[in-house]
Amino acid sequence: MHASLKLSNLSRLPFSLKTRAQKVSSASLEQAAQGVQKFCTDLPTISSDDRPFLLPLFSTFLDPLHIPATVDQLRSTPTAAQTDDIRNRVLLTIYSLQSIQALLGLDSISLQALPDLWATCIWPWISFLDSYSDNLPECNIPATTKLSTFATLINFFANDVGKEIFSSPGVFAVVGRTWAHLLHSYKSDDDAGIIVDEALSDISQFITQAAEHIRMHPDSLNDLGEGAGGLVSGLPSMVVSHLLHFIPHSDTVVTKDIATSVCGMVPFFFEDVQKHFPAFSRALLSCGAVPALITVLRAFGPDQMLVEQIFALSVVHISYFPRHKSITEALRAGLFPALFSYDTGRWKGAAVLWLKNLLSRILPGSTIYRSTLVQLRLSLAERDSWDAASTFTTDNLADWNAFLELANSRFQILNDYDSGILKAPKMCNNMQCITLYSDDDIQACSGCRLFRYCSKDCQLTGWRNDHRWVCAPLSSHRNDYSTNSARDKSFLRALIYHDYTTQREIIAREYFRFVLEYPNLLPVLVFGYIHGACSIEVDPLTLLINTLDLEAARAVTRDGRIQYQIMAVMNGEKPSCLLFPFREVGRNFWEELRAYAASLPLDGNALGRLDEYLPVVLELMQRE
What we know:
alpha+beta; four-stranded mixed β-sheet; two-stranded antiparallel ribbon; 30 helices; 8 strands; elongated
Protein backbone atom coordinates (compact mmCIF):
# COMPACT_ATOMS: atom_id res chain seq x y z
CA MET A 1 0.00 0.00 0.00
CA HIS A 2 1.27 3.46 -0.87
CA ALA A 3 2.20 5.55 2.19
CA SER A 4 -0.35 8.26 1.38
CA LEU A 5 -3.19 5.72 1.83
CA LYS A 6 -2.34 4.87 5.44
CA LEU A 7 -4.92 5.95 7.98
CA SER A 8 -2.16 7.31 10.26
CA ASN A 9 -1.91 10.32 7.90
CA LEU A 10 -5.04 11.72 9.54
CA SER A 11 -2.84 12.69 12.51
CA ARG A 12 -1.02 15.18 10.25
CA LEU A 13 -4.17 17.25 9.82
CA PRO A 14 -4.85 20.41 11.82
CA PHE A 15 -6.58 19.65 15.11
CA SER A 16 -10.12 20.59 14.03
CA LEU A 17 -9.92 18.66 10.75
CA LYS A 18 -8.26 15.70 12.44
CA THR A 19 -10.96 15.53 15.12
CA ARG A 20 -13.68 15.77 12.47
CA ALA A 21 -12.07 13.09 10.28
CA GLN A 22 -11.49 10.71 13.17
CA LYS A 23 -15.10 11.13 14.26
CA VAL A 24 -16.30 10.22 10.76
CA SER A 25 -13.95 7.21 10.54
CA SER A 26 -15.41 5.67 13.70
CA ALA A 27 -19.05 6.59 13.10
CA SER A 28 -21.93 4.31 12.06
CA LEU A 29 -22.47 3.70 8.34
CA GLU A 30 -25.26 6.25 8.17
CA GLN A 31 -23.33 8.95 10.03
CA ALA A 32 -20.13 8.15 8.16
CA ALA A 33 -21.95 8.58 4.82
CA GLN A 34 -23.24 11.97 5.94
CA GLY A 35 -19.78 12.98 7.16
CA VAL A 36 -18.03 11.97 3.92
CA GLN A 37 -20.67 13.79 1.87
CA LYS A 38 -19.99 16.95 3.89
CA PHE A 39 -16.23 16.56 3.45
CA CYS A 40 -16.73 16.15 -0.33
CA THR A 41 -18.64 19.44 -0.44
CA ASP A 42 -16.04 21.26 1.68
CA LEU A 43 -12.89 19.99 -0.09
CA PRO A 44 -12.42 23.07 -2.34
CA THR A 45 -12.34 25.30 0.77
CA ILE A 46 -9.80 23.18 2.65
CA SER A 47 -6.14 24.17 2.43
CA SER A 48 -4.24 22.51 -0.43
CA ASP A 49 -1.59 21.51 2.13
CA ASP A 50 -4.15 19.56 4.18
CA ARG A 51 -6.27 17.94 1.46
CA PRO A 52 -3.82 15.07 0.66
CA PHE A 53 -4.03 13.85 4.28
CA LEU A 54 -7.78 13.28 3.92
CA LEU A 55 -7.29 10.60 1.24
CA PRO A 56 -6.92 7.75 3.82
CA LEU A 57 -10.32 8.62 5.26
CA PHE A 58 -12.03 7.99 1.93
CA SER A 59 -9.88 5.01 0.90
CA THR A 60 -10.57 3.29 4.24
CA PHE A 61 -14.27 3.22 3.46
CA LEU A 62 -13.39 1.66 0.09
CA ASP A 63 -11.61 -1.32 1.62
CA PRO A 64 -12.63 -4.28 -0.62
CA LEU A 65 -12.82 -6.51 2.47
CA HIS A 66 -16.30 -5.02 3.03
CA ILE A 67 -17.56 -6.40 -0.30
CA PRO A 68 -17.96 -10.13 0.57
CA ALA A 69 -20.09 -9.37 3.64
CA THR A 70 -22.32 -7.07 1.57
CA VAL A 71 -22.66 -9.74 -1.13
CA ASP A 72 -23.65 -12.32 1.50
CA GLN A 73 -26.35 -10.00 2.77
CA LEU A 74 -27.69 -9.48 -0.76
CA ARG A 75 -27.78 -13.21 -1.51
CA SER A 76 -29.80 -13.94 1.61
CA THR A 77 -33.13 -12.34 2.38
CA PRO A 78 -31.99 -9.22 4.22
CA THR A 79 -33.98 -7.87 7.12
CA ALA A 80 -35.10 -4.24 7.16
CA ALA A 81 -32.09 -3.32 9.29
CA GLN A 82 -29.73 -5.15 6.94
CA THR A 83 -31.32 -3.39 3.96
CA ASP A 84 -30.65 -0.04 5.65
CA ASP A 85 -27.04 -1.09 6.28
CA ILE A 86 -26.59 -2.03 2.62
CA ARG A 87 -28.13 1.27 1.52
CA ASN A 88 -25.85 3.23 3.83
CA ARG A 89 -22.83 1.21 2.64
CA VAL A 90 -23.70 2.10 -0.95
CA LEU A 91 -24.11 5.79 -0.07
CA LEU A 92 -20.83 5.79 1.83
CA THR A 93 -19.07 4.11 -1.09
CA ILE A 94 -20.39 6.56 -3.69
CA TYR A 95 -19.61 9.61 -1.53
CA SER A 96 -16.09 8.25 -0.97
CA LEU A 97 -15.61 7.75 -4.73
CA GLN A 98 -16.87 11.29 -5.36
CA SER A 99 -14.49 12.63 -2.70
CA ILE A 100 -11.54 10.92 -4.39
CA GLN A 101 -12.78 12.31 -7.71
CA ALA A 102 -12.75 15.79 -6.14
CA LEU A 103 -9.23 15.29 -4.75
CA LEU A 104 -8.02 14.22 -8.20
CA GLY A 105 -9.57 17.32 -9.72
CA LEU A 106 -7.78 19.44 -7.12
CA ASP A 107 -4.41 17.74 -7.82
CA SER A 108 -4.31 16.53 -4.21
CA ILE A 109 -3.31 12.89 -4.79
CA SER A 110 0.22 11.71 -5.52
CA LEU A 111 0.61 10.10 -8.94
CA GLN A 112 2.61 7.31 -7.30
CA ALA A 113 -0.43 6.39 -5.19
CA LEU A 114 -2.77 5.94 -8.16
CA PRO A 115 -1.97 2.28 -9.06
CA ASP A 116 -2.60 1.11 -5.49
CA LEU A 117 -5.64 3.34 -5.15
CA TRP A 118 -7.15 1.87 -8.32
CA ALA A 119 -6.38 -1.76 -7.55
CA THR A 120 -7.31 -1.81 -3.86
CA CYS A 121 -10.10 0.76 -3.65
CA ILE A 122 -11.58 2.24 -6.82
CA TRP A 123 -12.00 -0.69 -9.19
CA PRO A 124 -13.26 -3.33 -6.73
CA TRP A 125 -16.10 -1.05 -5.64
CA ILE A 126 -16.99 0.24 -9.13
CA SER A 127 -17.11 -3.38 -10.28
CA PHE A 128 -19.30 -4.35 -7.31
CA LEU A 129 -21.74 -1.46 -7.76
CA ASP A 130 -22.03 -2.23 -11.46
CA SER A 131 -22.48 -5.99 -11.02
CA TYR A 132 -25.13 -5.71 -8.29
CA SER A 133 -26.87 -2.56 -9.47
CA ASP A 134 -30.19 -4.40 -9.95
CA ASN A 135 -30.05 -5.92 -6.47
CA LEU A 136 -29.02 -2.92 -4.40
CA PRO A 137 -31.68 -0.97 -2.48
CA GLU A 138 -32.60 2.42 -3.85
CA CYS A 139 -30.75 5.43 -2.50
CA ASN A 140 -31.10 9.16 -3.04
CA ILE A 141 -28.26 9.45 -5.56
CA PRO A 142 -29.45 9.64 -9.21
CA ALA A 143 -28.08 6.90 -11.47
CA THR A 144 -26.64 9.51 -13.84
CA THR A 145 -24.64 11.06 -10.99
CA LYS A 146 -23.26 7.69 -9.89
CA LEU A 147 -22.38 6.62 -13.45
CA SER A 148 -20.82 9.99 -14.25
CA THR A 149 -18.52 9.41 -11.26
CA PHE A 150 -17.60 5.99 -12.67
CA ALA A 151 -16.83 7.47 -16.09
CA THR A 152 -14.69 10.29 -14.72
CA LEU A 153 -12.68 8.04 -12.39
CA ILE A 154 -12.08 5.34 -15.01
CA ASN A 155 -10.93 7.91 -17.56
CA PHE A 156 -8.69 9.71 -15.06
CA PHE A 157 -6.94 6.53 -13.97
CA ALA A 158 -6.65 5.31 -17.58
CA ASN A 159 -4.90 8.56 -18.43
CA ASP A 160 -2.46 8.50 -15.51
CA VAL A 161 -2.04 4.77 -14.82
CA GLY A 162 -2.49 3.44 -18.36
CA LYS A 163 -2.40 -0.20 -19.41
CA GLU A 164 -3.14 -1.60 -15.96
CA ILE A 165 -6.61 -0.05 -16.15
CA PHE A 166 -7.39 -1.68 -19.52
CA SER A 167 -6.41 -5.07 -18.09
CA SER A 168 -8.82 -4.80 -15.17
CA PRO A 169 -11.36 -7.63 -15.63
CA GLY A 170 -14.68 -6.26 -16.84
CA VAL A 171 -13.67 -2.61 -17.18
CA PHE A 172 -14.80 -2.39 -20.82
CA ALA A 173 -18.18 -3.95 -19.98
CA VAL A 174 -18.65 -1.39 -17.17
CA VAL A 175 -17.77 1.44 -19.56
CA GLY A 176 -20.27 0.05 -22.09
CA ARG A 177 -23.11 -0.10 -19.56
CA THR A 178 -22.28 3.33 -18.19
CA TRP A 179 -22.14 4.77 -21.70
CA ALA A 180 -25.46 3.21 -22.72
CA HIS A 181 -27.29 4.50 -19.65
CA LEU A 182 -25.92 8.03 -19.96
CA LEU A 183 -26.80 8.27 -23.66
CA HIS A 184 -30.30 6.88 -23.23
CA SER A 185 -31.15 8.92 -20.16
CA TYR A 186 -29.84 12.27 -21.41
CA LYS A 187 -32.28 15.16 -21.58
CA SER A 188 -31.06 18.52 -22.78
CA ASP A 189 -33.34 20.40 -20.39
CA ASP A 190 -32.28 18.28 -17.41
CA ASP A 191 -30.18 19.90 -14.68
CA ALA A 192 -27.84 16.94 -14.96
CA GLY A 193 -27.29 17.54 -18.69
CA ILE A 194 -23.90 19.22 -18.20
CA ILE A 195 -22.73 16.41 -15.91
CA VAL A 196 -23.78 13.81 -18.48
CA ASP A 197 -21.98 15.69 -21.28
CA GLU A 198 -18.80 15.74 -19.23
CA ALA A 199 -19.15 12.02 -18.47
CA LEU A 200 -19.69 11.18 -22.15
CA SER A 201 -16.59 13.21 -22.94
CA ASP A 202 -14.70 11.15 -20.33
CA ILE A 203 -15.88 7.95 -22.02
CA SER A 204 -14.72 9.31 -25.38
CA GLN A 205 -11.29 10.03 -23.96
CA PHE A 206 -11.12 6.56 -22.40
CA ILE A 207 -11.89 4.91 -25.75
CA THR A 208 -9.26 7.08 -27.46
CA GLN A 209 -6.67 5.99 -24.90
CA ALA A 210 -7.79 2.36 -25.17
CA ALA A 211 -7.68 2.28 -28.99
CA GLU A 212 -4.31 0.53 -29.17
CA HIS A 213 -5.34 -1.95 -26.47
CA ILE A 214 -8.53 -2.74 -28.43
CA ARG A 215 -6.42 -3.35 -31.55
CA MET A 216 -4.16 -5.76 -29.66
CA HIS A 217 -7.01 -7.38 -27.69
CA PRO A 218 -10.16 -7.52 -29.87
CA ASP A 219 -12.12 -9.18 -27.05
CA SER A 220 -12.14 -5.78 -25.37
CA LEU A 221 -14.53 -4.58 -28.06
CA ASN A 222 -16.70 -7.62 -27.37
CA ASP A 223 -16.82 -6.65 -23.69
CA LEU A 224 -17.66 -3.04 -24.57
CA GLY A 225 -20.43 -4.26 -26.85
CA GLU A 226 -21.74 -6.63 -24.18
CA GLY A 227 -22.08 -3.73 -21.77
CA ALA A 228 -23.73 -1.59 -24.43
CA GLY A 229 -26.43 -4.17 -25.14
CA GLY A 230 -24.69 -6.26 -27.78
CA LEU A 231 -21.74 -5.88 -30.14
CA VAL A 232 -24.08 -5.79 -33.14
CA SER A 233 -27.44 -4.87 -31.60
CA GLY A 234 -26.35 -2.13 -29.19
CA LEU A 235 -22.88 -0.71 -29.69
CA PRO A 236 -23.20 0.49 -33.33
CA SER A 237 -26.28 2.60 -32.60
CA MET A 238 -24.52 4.06 -29.55
CA VAL A 239 -21.51 5.13 -31.61
CA VAL A 240 -23.76 6.94 -34.09
CA SER A 241 -25.94 8.39 -31.30
CA HIS A 242 -22.80 9.65 -29.55
CA LEU A 243 -21.64 11.47 -32.70
CA LEU A 244 -25.05 13.03 -33.25
CA HIS A 245 -25.35 13.90 -29.56
CA PHE A 246 -22.38 16.24 -29.81
CA ILE A 247 -22.88 17.29 -33.45
CA PRO A 248 -26.62 17.03 -34.16
CA HIS A 249 -26.47 19.14 -37.33
CA SER A 250 -23.92 20.60 -39.73
CA ASP A 251 -24.20 24.09 -38.20
CA THR A 252 -22.99 22.92 -34.79
CA VAL A 253 -20.17 25.08 -33.42
CA VAL A 254 -17.33 22.64 -32.78
CA THR A 255 -15.47 23.51 -29.58
CA LYS A 256 -12.31 21.79 -28.38
CA ASP A 257 -14.37 19.68 -25.95
CA ILE A 258 -16.76 18.58 -28.70
CA ALA A 259 -13.85 17.70 -30.98
CA THR A 260 -12.40 15.58 -28.17
CA SER A 261 -15.72 13.80 -27.69
CA VAL A 262 -15.96 13.05 -31.41
CA CYS A 263 -12.37 11.84 -31.47
CA GLY A 264 -13.28 9.00 -29.12
CA MET A 265 -15.56 7.46 -31.75
CA VAL A 266 -12.87 7.33 -34.46
CA PRO A 267 -11.37 3.95 -33.36
CA PHE A 268 -14.68 2.21 -34.09
CA PHE A 269 -14.21 3.00 -37.77
CA PHE A 270 -10.66 1.66 -38.05
CA GLU A 271 -9.86 -1.08 -40.56
CA ASP A 272 -8.75 -3.43 -37.77
CA VAL A 273 -12.23 -3.32 -36.25
CA GLN A 274 -13.82 -4.02 -39.64
CA LYS A 275 -11.44 -6.94 -40.12
CA HIS A 276 -12.08 -8.59 -36.75
CA PHE A 277 -15.75 -7.66 -36.41
CA PRO A 278 -17.33 -7.38 -39.88
CA ALA A 279 -20.85 -7.82 -38.45
CA PHE A 280 -20.25 -4.82 -36.18
CA SER A 281 -19.09 -2.70 -39.12
CA ARG A 282 -22.11 -3.68 -41.19
CA ALA A 283 -24.40 -2.82 -38.29
CA LEU A 284 -22.60 0.50 -37.93
CA LEU A 285 -23.48 1.34 -41.53
CA SER A 286 -27.10 0.27 -41.09
CA CYS A 287 -27.39 2.59 -38.07
CA GLY A 288 -26.52 5.64 -40.17
CA ALA A 289 -22.75 5.91 -39.68
CA VAL A 290 -22.14 7.49 -43.08
CA PRO A 291 -24.66 10.37 -42.69
CA ALA A 292 -23.32 10.95 -39.16
CA LEU A 293 -19.73 11.17 -40.45
CA ILE A 294 -20.78 13.58 -43.21
CA THR A 295 -22.60 15.75 -40.65
CA VAL A 296 -19.45 15.81 -38.51
CA LEU A 297 -17.34 16.62 -41.57
CA ARG A 298 -19.56 19.57 -42.49
CA ALA A 299 -19.48 20.94 -38.95
CA PHE A 300 -15.70 20.76 -38.60
CA GLY A 301 -13.76 23.81 -39.70
CA PRO A 302 -10.79 23.53 -42.11
CA ASP A 303 -8.31 23.90 -39.25
CA GLN A 304 -9.79 21.18 -37.07
CA MET A 305 -7.22 18.47 -36.38
CA LEU A 306 -9.66 15.67 -37.19
CA VAL A 307 -11.03 16.94 -40.50
CA GLU A 308 -8.66 14.91 -42.69
CA GLN A 309 -9.21 11.75 -40.65
CA ILE A 310 -13.00 12.16 -40.62
CA PHE A 311 -12.93 12.69 -44.40
CA ALA A 312 -10.82 9.55 -44.89
CA LEU A 313 -13.17 7.49 -42.70
CA SER A 314 -16.16 8.87 -44.61
CA VAL A 315 -14.69 7.82 -47.96
CA VAL A 316 -13.74 4.38 -46.64
CA HIS A 317 -17.20 3.68 -45.24
CA ILE A 318 -18.98 5.07 -48.27
CA SER A 319 -17.15 2.42 -50.27
CA TYR A 320 -18.43 -0.47 -48.09
CA PHE A 321 -21.13 -2.82 -49.30
CA PRO A 322 -23.73 -1.90 -50.43
CA ARG A 323 -21.79 1.02 -51.84
CA HIS A 324 -24.54 2.78 -53.78
CA LYS A 325 -26.76 2.92 -50.69
CA SER A 326 -23.96 4.44 -48.62
CA ILE A 327 -23.29 7.03 -51.33
CA THR A 328 -26.97 7.91 -51.56
CA GLU A 329 -27.03 8.45 -47.78
CA ALA A 330 -23.86 10.54 -47.97
CA LEU A 331 -25.29 12.72 -50.74
CA ARG A 332 -28.49 13.21 -48.79
CA ALA A 333 -26.46 14.22 -45.72
CA GLY A 334 -24.58 16.87 -47.72
CA LEU A 335 -21.43 15.26 -49.13
CA PHE A 336 -20.95 17.92 -51.80
CA PRO A 337 -21.47 20.92 -49.49
CA ALA A 338 -18.88 19.28 -47.23
CA LEU A 339 -16.42 19.27 -50.12
CA PHE A 340 -17.09 22.86 -51.17
CA SER A 341 -17.73 24.61 -47.84
CA TYR A 342 -14.25 25.99 -47.35
CA ASP A 343 -11.77 28.19 -49.13
CA THR A 344 -8.70 27.19 -51.10
CA GLY A 345 -6.27 24.96 -49.29
CA ARG A 346 -8.58 22.61 -47.44
CA TRP A 347 -7.80 19.51 -49.47
CA LYS A 348 -4.10 18.89 -49.11
CA GLY A 349 -1.78 16.03 -48.35
CA ALA A 350 -3.40 12.63 -47.86
CA ALA A 351 -6.86 14.18 -48.34
CA VAL A 352 -6.04 14.68 -52.02
CA LEU A 353 -5.60 10.92 -52.43
CA TRP A 354 -8.87 10.14 -50.66
CA LEU A 355 -10.59 12.75 -52.79
CA LYS A 356 -9.22 11.16 -55.94
CA ASN A 357 -10.59 7.79 -54.87
CA LEU A 358 -13.98 9.37 -54.25
CA LEU A 359 -14.16 11.34 -57.50
CA SER A 360 -12.55 8.88 -59.92
CA ARG A 361 -13.80 5.55 -58.56
CA ILE A 362 -16.49 5.54 -55.89
CA LEU A 363 -18.89 8.19 -57.19
CA PRO A 364 -18.61 7.22 -60.89
CA GLY A 365 -19.08 3.54 -60.05
CA SER A 366 -22.41 4.30 -58.40
CA THR A 367 -23.95 6.15 -61.33
CA ILE A 368 -25.34 2.84 -62.60
CA TYR A 369 -28.05 2.80 -59.92
CA ARG A 370 -31.28 4.69 -60.36
CA SER A 371 -31.64 5.50 -56.64
CA THR A 372 -28.20 7.08 -56.58
CA LEU A 373 -28.76 9.01 -59.81
CA VAL A 374 -32.01 10.50 -58.49
CA GLN A 375 -30.29 11.79 -55.34
CA LEU A 376 -27.20 12.81 -57.31
CA ARG A 377 -29.29 14.98 -59.60
CA LEU A 378 -30.77 16.74 -56.57
CA SER A 379 -27.38 17.14 -54.89
CA LEU A 380 -25.78 18.64 -58.01
CA ALA A 381 -28.55 21.20 -58.51
CA GLU A 382 -26.42 23.93 -56.89
CA ARG A 383 -23.11 23.01 -58.52
CA ASP A 384 -22.93 26.31 -60.39
CA SER A 385 -22.34 28.05 -57.05
CA TRP A 386 -19.40 25.80 -56.16
CA ASP A 387 -15.89 26.97 -56.95
CA ALA A 388 -14.27 23.69 -57.93
CA ALA A 389 -11.18 25.38 -59.38
CA SER A 390 -10.21 26.88 -56.02
CA THR A 391 -11.28 23.84 -53.98
CA PHE A 392 -9.44 21.05 -55.80
CA THR A 393 -5.92 20.43 -56.99
CA THR A 394 -5.43 20.22 -60.75
CA ASP A 395 -5.63 16.43 -60.66
CA ASN A 396 -8.76 16.38 -58.49
CA LEU A 397 -10.37 19.05 -60.68
CA ALA A 398 -9.88 16.85 -63.75
CA ASP A 399 -11.50 13.94 -61.88
CA TRP A 400 -14.40 16.17 -60.85
CA ASN A 401 -15.06 17.36 -64.40
CA ALA A 402 -14.88 13.80 -65.74
CA PHE A 403 -17.35 12.69 -63.08
CA LEU A 404 -19.77 15.49 -63.99
CA GLU A 405 -19.59 14.52 -67.66
CA LEU A 406 -20.38 10.89 -66.81
CA ALA A 407 -23.18 11.91 -64.45
CA ASN A 408 -24.81 14.10 -67.11
CA SER A 409 -24.75 11.23 -69.61
CA ARG A 410 -26.36 8.91 -67.06
CA PHE A 411 -29.00 11.54 -66.25
CA GLN A 412 -30.06 11.43 -69.91
CA ILE A 413 -30.33 7.63 -69.75
CA LEU A 414 -32.34 7.99 -66.53
CA ASN A 415 -34.71 10.42 -68.26
CA ASP A 416 -35.25 7.95 -71.11
CA TYR A 417 -35.84 5.15 -68.63
CA ASP A 418 -38.30 7.09 -66.46
CA SER A 419 -40.23 8.32 -69.52
CA GLY A 420 -40.55 4.79 -70.90
CA ILE A 421 -38.39 5.41 -73.98
CA LEU A 422 -35.72 2.99 -72.76
CA LYS A 423 -36.95 -0.52 -71.97
CA ALA A 424 -34.87 -3.68 -71.85
CA PRO A 425 -36.50 -6.87 -73.14
CA LYS A 426 -36.35 -10.04 -71.08
CA MET A 427 -35.91 -13.61 -72.27
CA CYS A 428 -38.21 -16.52 -71.54
CA ASN A 429 -36.11 -19.16 -69.78
CA ASN A 430 -37.95 -22.11 -71.29
CA MET A 431 -35.21 -23.67 -73.44
CA GLN A 432 -37.74 -24.41 -76.14
CA CYS A 433 -38.82 -20.78 -76.30
CA ILE A 434 -36.04 -18.30 -75.26
CA THR A 435 -37.97 -15.50 -76.90
CA LEU A 436 -37.64 -11.83 -75.93
CA TYR A 437 -40.56 -10.06 -74.28
CA SER A 438 -41.30 -6.77 -72.55
CA ASP A 439 -41.75 -6.51 -68.78
CA ASP A 440 -45.53 -6.64 -69.15
CA ASP A 441 -45.46 -9.98 -70.97
CA ILE A 442 -43.12 -12.01 -68.74
CA GLN A 443 -43.17 -13.05 -65.07
CA ALA A 444 -40.39 -14.13 -62.68
CA CYS A 445 -40.32 -17.49 -60.91
CA SER A 446 -41.70 -16.95 -57.41
CA GLY A 447 -38.92 -19.14 -55.96
CA CYS A 448 -35.57 -17.95 -57.31
CA ARG A 449 -36.88 -14.70 -58.84
CA LEU A 450 -34.17 -15.06 -61.52
CA PHE A 451 -35.83 -17.22 -64.21
CA ARG A 452 -38.66 -15.68 -66.20
CA TYR A 453 -41.37 -17.22 -68.32
CA CYS A 454 -43.76 -15.80 -70.88
CA SER A 455 -46.62 -18.19 -70.04
CA LYS A 456 -47.73 -20.88 -67.60
CA ASP A 457 -47.03 -23.49 -70.29
CA CYS A 458 -43.43 -22.29 -70.66
CA GLN A 459 -43.01 -22.24 -66.88
CA LEU A 460 -44.32 -25.81 -66.58
CA THR A 461 -42.10 -27.00 -69.42
CA GLY A 462 -39.06 -25.25 -67.96
CA TRP A 463 -39.77 -26.75 -64.54
CA ARG A 464 -39.94 -30.28 -65.95
CA ASN A 465 -36.82 -29.85 -68.09
CA ASP A 466 -34.34 -28.44 -65.60
CA HIS A 467 -35.61 -25.69 -63.33
CA ARG A 468 -36.91 -27.99 -60.58
CA TRP A 469 -33.31 -29.06 -59.95
CA VAL A 470 -31.79 -25.62 -59.79
CA CYS A 471 -34.46 -23.27 -58.40
CA ALA A 472 -33.26 -23.60 -54.80
CA PRO A 473 -29.50 -23.31 -55.64
CA LEU A 474 -30.21 -20.27 -57.82
CA SER A 475 -31.90 -18.59 -54.87
CA SER A 476 -28.50 -18.34 -53.19
CA HIS A 477 -27.28 -16.18 -56.09
CA ARG A 478 -29.96 -13.62 -55.30
CA ASN A 479 -27.54 -12.16 -52.73
CA ASP A 480 -25.84 -10.31 -55.59
CA TYR A 481 -29.15 -8.59 -56.32
CA SER A 482 -30.87 -8.52 -52.94
CA THR A 483 -29.41 -5.17 -51.89
CA ASN A 484 -30.94 -3.50 -54.93
CA SER A 485 -34.51 -2.27 -55.12
CA ALA A 486 -36.77 -3.49 -57.91
CA ARG A 487 -36.33 -0.20 -59.78
CA ASP A 488 -32.55 -0.35 -59.41
CA LYS A 489 -32.54 -3.88 -60.85
CA SER A 490 -34.74 -2.81 -63.73
CA PHE A 491 -32.51 0.21 -64.42
CA LEU A 492 -29.37 -1.96 -64.42
CA ARG A 493 -30.93 -4.12 -67.13
CA ALA A 494 -31.99 -1.01 -69.07
CA LEU A 495 -28.49 0.49 -68.79
CA ILE A 496 -26.78 -2.60 -70.14
CA TYR A 497 -29.34 -2.75 -72.95
CA HIS A 498 -28.67 0.91 -73.76
CA ASP A 499 -24.94 0.33 -73.99
CA TYR A 500 -25.50 -2.81 -76.04
CA THR A 501 -27.58 -0.95 -78.61
CA THR A 502 -25.47 2.24 -78.74
CA GLN A 503 -21.99 0.71 -78.85
CA ARG A 504 -22.46 -1.81 -81.63
CA GLU A 505 -19.20 -0.95 -83.35
CA ILE A 506 -17.17 -1.62 -80.21
CA ILE A 507 -19.04 -4.91 -79.71
CA ALA A 508 -18.38 -5.86 -83.35
CA ARG A 509 -14.66 -5.28 -82.84
CA GLU A 510 -14.75 -7.41 -79.70
CA TYR A 511 -16.68 -10.19 -81.48
CA PHE A 512 -14.16 -10.27 -84.30
CA ARG A 513 -11.21 -10.26 -81.91
CA PHE A 514 -12.80 -13.14 -80.02
CA VAL A 515 -13.36 -15.44 -83.01
CA LEU A 516 -9.78 -14.83 -84.14
CA GLU A 517 -8.33 -15.71 -80.72
CA TYR A 518 -10.85 -18.41 -79.70
CA PRO A 519 -12.32 -19.91 -82.89
CA ASN A 520 -13.74 -22.98 -81.11
CA LEU A 521 -15.15 -21.40 -77.93
CA LEU A 522 -18.46 -19.76 -77.08
CA PRO A 523 -18.47 -16.10 -75.96
CA VAL A 524 -19.89 -14.06 -73.12
CA LEU A 525 -20.25 -10.30 -73.38
CA VAL A 526 -18.83 -8.40 -70.40
CA PHE A 527 -19.90 -4.83 -69.64
CA GLY A 528 -17.59 -3.31 -67.05
CA TYR A 529 -18.88 -0.52 -64.79
CA ILE A 530 -16.29 -0.88 -62.02
CA HIS A 531 -15.28 2.78 -62.23
CA GLY A 532 -18.44 4.14 -63.82
CA ALA A 533 -17.79 4.48 -67.54
CA CYS A 534 -18.72 1.41 -69.57
CA SER A 535 -16.01 -0.85 -70.98
CA ILE A 536 -16.88 -3.81 -73.22
CA GLU A 537 -15.09 -7.12 -73.68
CA VAL A 538 -16.01 -10.49 -75.17
CA ASP A 539 -14.49 -13.37 -73.21
CA PRO A 540 -14.76 -17.17 -73.33
CA LEU A 541 -17.91 -18.67 -71.87
CA THR A 542 -15.67 -20.65 -69.51
CA LEU A 543 -15.56 -17.42 -67.52
CA LEU A 544 -19.06 -18.36 -66.37
CA ILE A 545 -18.10 -21.79 -65.06
CA ASN A 546 -17.15 -20.44 -61.65
CA THR A 547 -20.14 -18.12 -61.59
CA LEU A 548 -23.09 -20.25 -62.57
CA ASP A 549 -22.40 -23.75 -63.88
CA LEU A 550 -26.02 -24.13 -64.91
CA GLU A 551 -26.05 -21.04 -67.09
CA ALA A 552 -22.82 -22.06 -68.82
CA ALA A 553 -24.28 -25.50 -69.48
CA ARG A 554 -27.47 -24.00 -70.88
CA ALA A 555 -25.47 -21.78 -73.22
CA VAL A 556 -23.44 -24.74 -74.46
CA THR A 557 -26.50 -26.90 -75.08
CA ARG A 558 -28.00 -24.08 -77.15
CA ASP A 559 -24.76 -23.73 -79.13
CA GLY A 560 -24.33 -20.14 -78.03
CA ARG A 561 -27.82 -19.03 -79.07
CA ILE A 562 -28.42 -17.62 -75.58
CA GLN A 563 -26.29 -14.49 -75.46
CA TYR A 564 -25.16 -13.91 -71.90
CA GLN A 565 -24.08 -10.53 -70.67
CA ILE A 566 -22.11 -10.01 -67.49
CA MET A 567 -22.31 -6.68 -65.73
CA ALA A 568 -19.14 -6.10 -63.68
CA VAL A 569 -19.84 -3.73 -60.77
CA MET A 570 -18.39 -2.91 -57.37
CA ASN A 571 -20.04 -4.54 -54.37
CA GLY A 572 -18.37 -2.75 -51.51
CA GLU A 573 -14.62 -2.97 -52.00
CA LYS A 574 -14.75 -6.05 -54.24
CA PRO A 575 -15.90 -6.45 -57.85
CA SER A 576 -18.96 -8.56 -58.46
CA CYS A 577 -20.64 -9.93 -61.56
CA LEU A 578 -24.35 -9.64 -62.29
CA LEU A 579 -25.56 -12.09 -64.94
CA PHE A 580 -28.16 -11.27 -67.59
CA PRO A 581 -29.41 -14.00 -70.00
CA PHE A 582 -30.09 -11.27 -72.51
CA ARG A 583 -31.29 -12.50 -75.86
CA GLU A 584 -31.32 -15.22 -78.48
CA VAL A 585 -28.65 -14.90 -81.16
CA GLY A 586 -29.45 -16.18 -84.66
CA ARG A 587 -28.40 -19.81 -85.15
CA ASN A 588 -26.06 -19.03 -88.04
CA PHE A 589 -24.40 -15.91 -86.64
CA TRP A 590 -21.41 -17.54 -84.99
CA GLU A 591 -20.96 -20.03 -87.85
CA GLU A 592 -20.91 -17.22 -90.39
CA LEU A 593 -18.58 -15.06 -88.25
CA ARG A 594 -16.15 -17.95 -87.75
CA ALA A 595 -16.27 -18.81 -91.44
CA TYR A 596 -15.54 -15.21 -92.40
CA ALA A 597 -12.62 -15.01 -89.95
CA ALA A 598 -11.25 -18.29 -91.29
CA SER A 599 -11.37 -16.99 -94.87
CA LEU A 600 -9.06 -14.08 -94.12
CA PRO A 601 -5.35 -14.17 -95.01
CA LEU A 602 -3.42 -15.91 -92.24
CA ASP A 603 -0.68 -13.31 -92.02
CA GLY A 604 -1.09 -12.72 -88.27
CA ASN A 605 -2.20 -9.13 -88.79
CA ALA A 606 -5.96 -9.54 -89.03
CA LEU A 607 -6.52 -7.54 -85.84
CA GLY A 608 -4.35 -4.78 -87.22
CA ARG A 609 -6.68 -4.45 -90.23
CA LEU A 610 -9.87 -4.58 -88.15
CA ASP A 611 -11.34 -1.41 -89.70
CA GLU A 612 -11.19 -3.11 -93.06
CA TYR A 613 -13.28 -6.07 -91.85
CA LEU A 614 -15.61 -4.19 -89.52
CA PRO A 615 -18.43 -3.50 -92.05
CA VAL A 616 -18.82 -7.22 -92.70
CA VAL A 617 -19.01 -8.01 -88.98
CA LEU A 618 -21.60 -5.25 -88.46
CA GLU A 619 -23.66 -6.63 -91.32
CA LEU A 620 -23.61 -10.10 -89.75
CA MET A 621 -24.67 -8.61 -86.41
CA GLN A 622 -27.53 -6.83 -88.15
CA ARG A 623 -28.90 -10.21 -89.25
CA GLU A 624 -28.78 -11.86 -85.80
